[in-house]
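User: Can you recover a sequence for this backbone? Please restate the input before giving your answer.

Assistant: Of course. Working from this structure:
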């Protein structure tokens, strides 16, 4: 089932999320719903607070090559174990900040540990777009958005646009 994606500014997007205790059917359903919502958007990553759930869960799939098999990943309690000194810069966007993009510099390589959908611990080194995306999504779990990396003026400009967008949407659905 598709879920509604919160748009910045929203206090729920600024919260530090709680670790997921034991996996339950409800949490697995949430992960499936988030993947469906992400693919439908379309996007390459989504964090639970973006659908209003303040738990440490992210989903992502950064496979872009046409015709390549999808690789949907659901990560419960993801944690960055190590990050490279080498950095890379990508133009980032966010489903909670529609149509706004900006370059963000992050470690080029990160080793991440998480619990998968079946409750098994996983560990993997991510590079390229996967590395950027997984860091962007884990930031969401700590109440951090990609615009927090930008200069204050740019951030305020984007936030003002989002306030306006939310007002227009509220009016359209009234
Ligand atoms: Ni995002």
């Amino acid at each position: 089932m598709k879920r509604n994606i919160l748009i910045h500014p929203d206090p729920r997007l600024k919260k530090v999320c709680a670790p997921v205790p034991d996996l339950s059917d409800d949490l697995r359903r949430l992960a499936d719903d988030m993947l469906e919502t992400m693919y439908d958007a379309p996007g390459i990553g989504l964090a639970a607070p973006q659908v209003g759930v303040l738990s440490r869960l992210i989903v992502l799939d950064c496979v872009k090559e046409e015709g390549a098999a999808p690789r949907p990943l659901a990560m419960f309690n993801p944690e960055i174990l190590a990050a490279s000194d080498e950095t890379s810069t990508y133009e980032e966007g966010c489903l909670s900040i529609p149509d706004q993009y900006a370059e963000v510099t992050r470690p080029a390589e990160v080793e991440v540990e998480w619990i998968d959908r079946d409750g098994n611990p996983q560990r993997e080194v991510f590079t390229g777009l996967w590395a950027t995306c997984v860091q962007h999504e884990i930031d969401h779990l700590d109440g951090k958005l990609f615009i927090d990396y930008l200069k204050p003026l740019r951030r305020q400009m984007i936030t003002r646009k989002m306030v306006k967008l939310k007002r227009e949407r509220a009016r359209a659905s009234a």
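That completes the design. DSSP finds three helices and seven strands in the chain.
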